[in-house]
Amino acid sequence: AALLVAAAAPAPIALDELVELAGLELDVHPQQALAALAYAQRHPLIRPAAQANAERYWQSGPEAGRNEAEALAATLPQERPATLIELLGFG
C-alpha cells in the first residue's frame, strides 16, 4: 500500500517515502538503497527532514559501493522520484 501511495504522490512526498524505504532496504539491497539515498539528497525538491534522514541513513549504510551508488543516482531522472521505488526494486 505504501508503494501505491508513493507512486501517486507529489515529488516531495515521494522523496520522503523513497528515503524511508531506502533506509529499510539498506541491509537487504545496500547498493539500490545507497543509490536511492544519493538521488534523494541531490534532488532539488527534498524537504529538510527527509534530507536529514537521507544523510543519517547514508552514514549508517555500508561504505563499500558508495561511489557506484552516487554514479547510478546521477543517471536517474529527477522528474518522477516515485518511479525509482519500482526501478530500484523496492516493491
List the helices and strands and how they pair.
Layout: H1 2-8, H2 11-25, H3 30-42, H4 48-60, H5 66-75, H6 83-87
Helix pairs in contact: 1-2, 2-3, 2-4, 3-4, 3-5
Rg of Cα set: 11 Å
What overall geometry do the principal axes of the alpha carbons give? globular
Helix content: 55-70%
Largest sheet: none
Which stretches of 5+ consecutive residues score pLDDT under 50? 1-6
- Quaternary status of these chains? single chain
Output the structural class: mainly alpha
The topology string of helices and strands comes to HHHHHH
Number of helices: 6
Secondary structure tally: strands? 0
Report the end-to-end length measured between terminal Cα atoms.
Answer: 10 Å
Summarize the structure.
The protein has 91 residues and is mainly alpha-helical. The protein has helices at 2-8, 11-25, 30-42, 48-60, 66-75, 83-87.
Question: Describe it for me?
Answer:
This protein is an all-alpha fold and 91 residues long. Helix content is 69%, strand content 0%. The protein has helices spanning 2-8, 11-25, 30-42, 48-60, 66-75, 83-87. Helix 2 (11-25) runs parallel beside helix 4 (48-60) and helix 3 packs across helix 5 (66-75). The radius of gyration is 11 Å and the shape is globular. The N and C termini lie close together (10 Å). Mean pLDDT is 85; it is low at 1-6.
Protein traits:
single chain, disordered N terminus, mainly alpha, 91 residues
